[in-house]
Amino acid sequence: MAVARPIIGAAIGGWANDRYGRRSAILIADFLFFTGAVIMASALAQLFSSLVEFCWTRCWNGIYDCPSLHFRGFSCKNPRCPCQYQWISHYWRPVPLLSHQLGLYQGVPALLQFSLMLLLPESPRWLFRKGREEEAKAILGKIYPADDVETEIQDLKESIDKEILEEGGSEKINLIKLLQTQTVRRGLIAGVGLQVFQQFVGINTVMYYSPTIVQLAGFASNQTALLLSLVTAGFNAFGSIVSIYFIDRTGRKKLLIISLFGVVISLGLLSGIFRETTTHSPIVIATESSFAAYTCLDYSSVTNAVGWDCMKCLKASHPDCGFCSSASDKLLPGSCLISNSTVKDLCHKSHREWYARGCPSKYGWVALIGLTLYIIFFSPGMGTVPWIVNSEIYPLRFRGVCGGIAATANWISNLIVAQSFLSLTQAIGTSSAFLIFGIISVVALIFVLIYVPETKGLPIEEVEKMLELRTQHYKFSEKSSGPLEKSQEM
To answer: Where are the transmembrane segments (predicted)?
Structure first.
């Protein structure tokens, strides 16, 4: 449910941005998120976390997730805002649910953003569309030098008049007509495709299940697994900061390609390491007398258990079984025992390691390197650029709706991947699961090369022209010209 709750919010958020304006929608979302955080904190503090109340507050918070997509259209066309949102979300994500204080912690970014948003104006382009031209002109006068204000106002007015003439002045948007509009349809292919691939290359399996993945790599301790997963989350936050620096220097498309290239290599490394861990796990030997009463039933019932190793032990299910390593060396043969707290404590008291998810491996540290590389390559590119491209690629009239569609696609994909990962690893193994993510990453790389345009340095009008002229985009940069270029530089 925690993964599914932003889907509704993402779908509503796009409509709210068009209906009430970018600034108002963000303020409303911040208020809802802070309210949800306070209610959740209160519920946890009182040890009352009924399913209805918990899900309701999380749905409120889900609505907050969508407006970040529209920061760039707010005033000065700054793509760093989605990068900053990405950094904040990953900064707060790794905090474990230890007490009711977490609910209050989650409300801090929303309260801070609400306070800062009060100091910012509404989007001039949105104001023009609503007929509030004087307000829009006043805001543009504060953003641009006096010599360029009239040119910017005229260009903006002509662009909006053209949109109204082509699409009509009605506030209602016909989805069928939207999809029949060539520039919007091509923009949706690029925008929605990026959001879907962002999830299907496996990022949130790493973020949600990083302690489990660390244990699958051969680290038995829960504390060690949690600590290493927090380090991974830290690299994710750091990568988003790197994106803020490079996004306007390197360009969106180049950053995506570099990111996906690194992701493919990292996933290949992870797949190979987990295959090595699976095929070379310690063998199982006859249980010692001190553990005889706790021998795994599947193991004891087999007449010839010569082929049993740690991995086969962990797959036993009558009942669930775990592997108690050798006291002298965890890579030496160990015992296959019933998995429960009593047996786990008995194993630890004998100065042995207890494994219930993954098996001992001398290559576990290489898997950690693979996870770290995956995060380092993913977060500056695929972590932030899909949100930035989606804030730049649609005409203003359709930006709210299209942004909502893309965000909803992102969260639906997130739900599918997150809910299927553990079942996938159990069915085909961790190595094969990462291999599948690697293959999807290759497809994503091809998709970016063909369908995603480079929007660096381009005003909205030129992005529309570019989408109108062609479907496929092999170039890595586009150059604006004339007044538009001057306006963009300002």
So the answer is: 25-48, 102-120, 187-210, 225-248, 255-274, 363-389, 401-422, 434-452
